[in-house]
Amino acid sequence: MKTAYRTSPHSTAEIPAGIPFIIGNEFAERFSYYGMRAILVVFMTQYLMNAGGQLAPMSENEAKAYFHLFVSITYFTPFFGALLADGFLGKYRTIILLSMVYCLGHFSLALDDTRSGLLVGQALIALGAGGIKPCVSAHVGDQFGVSNQHWLSKVFSWFYLSVNLGAFIAMLWVPWLLKTYGSSIAFLVPGVLMLLATIIFWSGRYRFAHIPAAGMNFVSEALSGEGLRCLGRLSGIYLFIAMFWALFDQNGSSWVLQAQQMDRQMWGIEILPSQIQAANPLLIILLTPLFYRYLYPALAKWIPLGYLNKIAIGLFITVLSFALIAGIQMRIDAGFHPGIGWQVLAYLLLTSAEVMVSITCLEFSYTQAPKVMKSFVMSLYMAAVALGNLFTSAVNFLIENPDGSNRLEGASYFWFFTGLMLVTAVGFFLHSRHYQEKTYLQDEE
């Protein structure tokens, strides 16, 4: 006899039984995504072929623009996933369906190293990865009720740690696979991990609380006065967050290209340019518990440390990280080859900002969303990531002259973004003073 799925969280003070399956799924899925993403710019500038089997790489500006366009689309498609999840299929079925699309995207990249294969693969991955993204993080929150909500912040931090553990391993291993075995194997391995992620998630189906899709109630809730007020309040916050992502995601593009011009010897080992990105997830793993155990309690003694103050501090730290990157580029422009340790220091600053902005935004977004709009509000947050990357993509398309030169050469490119981030941080701090928080959690059995 078929066992019915639970449709609400258990009334318990313990961690929900489905959490390990969600975290295991997230580890493998993020390995697949970040492993693929880590090598995209290098693949496009060094390995891309034409239909005749000849090398046909992109220019650096074109590759950066396409990279950020891909990331942008990946973070716009969450709207589609959220509509499916909240309005029609529910989160679980949406995640399973789009995970299969996701797998096909990886295998497309592995089988075709031309622009056509790149386009098809990226389109499928953008739909799959983006579509499940708001559903998975909202699905985490759905497992909790009032009785165990005290675990919510800690579990979201574990969730984020699993993201970064998967990313860390992938960012070290997949670039090595690309250099050693070529693009087919390098793209195939992330595809296998995505298939594993899907199986892990399916295995937890009877442990999850499956919050039913709201159907037309979703539409009426979204268009209600309360729903519209919620979306309006959050949209004002997310517009500022978009600029954070415009800068942050450049660690996969402009920072990689900068690393190619640096002395990458560390402890007698030459690190590949795309492997430097692994500093970010490693630092997340190290810094997250330190922030929650020591830094946040210490700061809370001096200032109110709610969601928005954490985010504001993170935005100002982002300014410092890009100022350092701009300084590194000034040395490169002067003919020097700075040690890669300087970029690692910039990663330390950027990752500290990420802990305060990104992890906080996940919990903030879930708690501020009405009960039947959890995935949709998460997708609205993802749209901020998309908007930021779309901005960066547009900048890179627009600054390239017809002769291949740039309007923002060298360090001026990074100083441009540093200035924008400073203005954004100040603007967010002033705007956030007027935000009124309202928390919504799921009902228990």
Q: How would you summarize this macromolecular structure in one to three sentences?
A:
The protein has 445 residues and is mainly alpha-helical. The chain has helices at residues 19-38, 40-47, 60-76, 78-89, 91-111, 115-142, 152-181, 183-203, 216-222, 225-248, 254-259, 279-300, 307-333, 341-368, 374-398, 411-432; strands spanning 265-266, 269-270. A two-stranded antiparallel ribbon has the order 1-2.
Walk me through the structure:
With 445 residues, this protein is mostly helical. It has a single domain (20-207, 214-432), classed as MFS general substrate transporter like domains (Growth Hormone, Chain: A). Helix content is 71%, strand content 1%. It has 16 helices and 2 strands. A two-stranded antiparallel sheet has the order 1-2. The longest helix has 30 residues, at 152-181. The mean pLDDT is 89.
Indicate the topology.
Layout: H1 19-38, H2 40-47, H3 60-76, H4 78-89, H5 91-111, H6 115-142, H7 152-181, H8 183-203, H9 216-222, H10 225-248, H11 254-259, E1 265-266, E2 269-270, H12 279-300, H13 307-333, H14 341-368, H15 374-398, H16 411-432
Key traits:
single chain, 445 residues, mainly alpha, Growth Hormone, Chain: A, 71% helix
Sheet having the most strands: 2 strands, antiparallel
Mean pLDDT over all positions: 89
Number of helices: 16
Taking the alpha carbons of the first and last residues, their distance comes to 23 Å
Helix % is: over 70%
Low-confidence stretches at least 5 residues in length (pLDDT < 50)? none
Number of domains: 1
Q: How many beta-strand runs? A: 2
At CATH level 3, the topology is: Growth Hormone, Chain: A
